[in-house]
Amino acid sequence: MIDDDRHLGTFDGGGIAGKGDRFAQADKGGDILGQSSQAAEGMASVPALLQRNAERFGTRPAYREKEFGIWQSWTWAETEKEIEALALGFLNLGVDEGDFVAIIGRNRPYFYWAMVAAQSVGAIPVPLYQDAAAEEMAYVMGHCGARFAVVEDQEQVDKVIEIQEELHQFEHMIYVDPRGLRKYDHHKLHIFADIQEQGRAAYWEFIEDLKERRGKLDYDSICVMLYTSGTTGKPKGVVLSNRNIIEASRASAEFDNLTEHEEVLAYLPMAWVGDFIFSVGQAYWCGFCVNCPESADTMQIDLREIGPTYYFAPPRVFETQLTNVMIRMEDAGRLKKWLFDVFMEHARKVGPAILDGKPVGAWDRAKYALGHALVYGPLKDTLGFSRVRVGYTAGEAIGPEIFDFYRSLGINLKQLYGQTEASVFITVQPDGEVRSDTVGVPAPGVEVEIDENGEVWYRGPGVFEYYYKNEESTKKTKTEDGWVATGDAGFFEEDSGHLRIIDRAKDVGKMADGKMFAPKYVENKLKFFPNILEAVVFGDGRDACTAFINIDLNAVGNWAERNNIGYASYQELAGHPRVLDMIQQHVEDVNRSLSEDPMLSHCQVHRFLVLHKELDADDGEITRTRKVRRGVVAEKYGDLLTALYDGSKEISTTTEVTYEDGRKGSISATLEIRDAAVVDVADDKKVAAE
Fold this sequence. Notes:
The protein is of the alpha/beta class. The protein folds into 3 domains: about 5-35 and about 310-385 and about 390-505, Luciferase, domain 3 (Roll), CATH 2.30.38; about 45-260, ANL, N-terminal domain (Rossmann fold), CATH 3.40.50; about 510-690, ANL, C-terminal domain (GMP Synthetase, Chain A, domain 3, 2-Layer Sandwich), CATH 3.30.300. The chain contains 23 helices and 30 strands. The strands form 7 sheets. A 6-stranded antiparallel beta sheet has the order 2-1-19-20-22-23. Strands 6-5-7-8-9 form a 5-stranded parallel beta sheet, with helices on both faces. The longest helix is centred in the middle third of the chain and has 22 residues, at about 335-355.
């Protein structure tokens, strides 16, 4: 844990303050909030921003959706009418102020409209993960007491019908896609378009009621409730106000100079706070266009067609794209492969410096320009990044090599650190100060503090109001004066003021000899290799670290095909001796890297195994946002964990799995356990000294 006094202090946009200056910094934060409140005067809710955009940007596109291969488009003026019709339909259906409206579906304009329509009538939208199992939906909808749901298609309708007996307050469901639903009981099941038509027909009956409810909305009104991923327990309902969403959106938009001319691709889960901020908060504050792909399968094609100027993706998306590029280059002709290698080597050397506006020699600039014409430009176009002006990644640490690869192409990719409870933004990276090993400086208006245990705390205008029906957790997480515990351990670099995150504070433990154990740090290093999809490292209270590893089926499968290795399943490929050799090499590379880290050199992985199945959200092993449930994994695979520490060379196991249709089954396998070479740090230092 970090206990060096020099890291104890409060950081904000104005610099560094010691503990004694905490309240002075709080006053400064209040000034920022006061100024921004004046800036947003008259626009104290998302529906108010919609009205402004319809007047100011009426003919500009607000939404696009690709359907049947054709892009459909709605202007802000048309969007305002679509949302108004739906809001009137909600009133006609009996939606009351304070009601919760569940939103279940992929990214489509209809669901963004449904959220803003719900807000317009004083109700609270609650987006859910569309791939969640019925019992997961039952918990969220039952916890918030949702009376209404807007869903996408027959699959989601069936899920809600399956659990509706558990939902005592639930009344009506509205669906967008009518296919397969003609013979269902429609007494409380309604077509989205019909609700809008009913709203239009009842315009004069309800328009004054709508205006009255919309006029009541202010900064303190609830904007949305988003549920946490539930890494360690049941998901918590995070209540975010209009102040939280609008102020976070305003400050971040000004930080990156976002305007109404931006184009974004909305493809991340609508239940995730990042999508809500980018596709609702910032989109409505700036007035830019939100583009919805046709499906997950066409996302890459749609990305190229839209060419977004503002883009966000978690590290796994960037890793997958880079893996696909490398696979294609392995299959490319000799000349093409040579050109790629030569110019990419040069791009890694000077590309980030050119992007940051730093001095670079004329010859290097000329060679980089040639590389852009021959390699970087076509590659960016293929990836769909030719117009990206600002790109972000967050959620997990991204590998330095991956991060630097994209920046070397001239893509302004940056990292941010955030939480649902912060309305996303805690720290951001200013242009010209972008690094792969830190998460930047406090976001505008946000104060960040490191306590004596090394845990990161923050406060700012984006801080959530409370956890719904969970006063105890609210008090544990948020102090009376607005400071929020992140649960992450980190420290500020003394020279740069940039924040570095080590691990989840609850996961940081001690090994048997008392040294710090930071599993996430090691796991992220392992996942930097494209062949490794997931890793779970153990070592708390033990004398050595061990690991479970998932291979990336796409990357390893392509490698197997190129090397004439046949396989019939994930399990067969994961257990192949040559695959194990390759993973062992990756583990030992990580060990060598860790040996150079004076703080965590003792966290080298001594033994590992490759799991016979991918960790799956349906099996409860990871969350819907792909965060590992470490306790669940340790308990479920207890026999494998025991074998890692008792010296076994192999272990036979049987594991229960959940299929896509909800059926249960089991798979059996015999797994080989490998010993990985570790670097003796003491001997290594001794040799270096000699």
